[in-house]
């Protein structure tokens, strides 16, 4: 954003400088021509009078040096006589001089004007010249020049501001509409910097807010739905304790209640972990982990809870990965538990190295995950219709995805040769992980 603003002010500086230079050229072109014409018209009667006096005194003969010396300086003009050859050397337009009888030239300078007049006098060419200073004329000239420059600059500022005003208005309209609840609104980024940067940041912010609100709604729906089942069972079991006729029945009822409390504890544990991963955005505590020991420990502890499931393991020894050991273990546990829940009889856990990643494959022989549903299962609190009778709140894969995101890893879902789903956890195999980009 700082870079874009800096570029904007640089462009403004160059545009302003260009406009200022152009305004000077425009003012000089417009004013100098009129100024020269006016000054020539003012000087012409004086020059005509001087030439008339000199011509009369010369009695229409050649102008002598005595006449030149006498009148030179009398009216502020220096007088001289040129031959035709000398006039050609000075690049005087003799054709125009012959046709008009006289030529008056005025060169406007910064502080004074140079006036030169040529008169055809027989074979001679009379030259009258002076350096003229007219303070009043120069004052008017500079005032006009300043007004012209300011007018051109004002026109530039108006056009520049008007051009940027439409971009600001576009952003303001988007902000107002978004504030009124149009959360799906996005601002086109086809604008010059820094407005394109502002639009891009607004779109990113809007996407995050919309995603958070959607996630919040799913969270409320999921928790309210999944809390009802264990709470209802607890209430039912509590009511059952009132009608227990023996200590054995009472212990069984308490056992059911204890299992429901475990389910509630697991639900809240998953929820707090997911919120911690996505809200706090804490950095993982990276260390070198031996993958073989972690995977074997997870499989040996998780699979026995599912007596009907047979676990196959193909663990490559001596694979090390840079990761947060606690989070990595939790991710693998979630994948193994998910596979056990959905498998018919068999799951398979294997490790491998592929294309710069350390991969952990968890497969099952269950119903699998349809290709068009694979993105949905990664969303929190969203479960496939076929899994509604499976315990849990739909956070397992969302937690895994969040853990992988914090490790710059990836999660892939495809079909397994066993007949069900194959979910692959992929972590970079570099010795040092780069910190994940904050979103």
UniProtKB/TrEMBL annotation:
Q: Name one Pfam family in it.
A: HisKA
Q: Keywords of this protein's UniProt record, alphabetized?
A: ATP-binding, Cell membrane, Kinase, Membrane, Nucleotide-binding, Phosphoprotein, Transferase, Transmembrane, Transmembrane helix
Q: Which GO terms describe its cellular component?
A: plasma membrane
Look up the EC number in the record and give it.
2.7.13.3
Instruction: Enumerate the GO terms in the molecular function aspect.
Output: ATP binding; phosphorelay sensor kinase activity
Q: Where is the chain membrane-spanning?
A: 12-31, 140-161
Does this entry carry the keyword Transferase?
yes
Return the protein name. Answer: histidine kinase
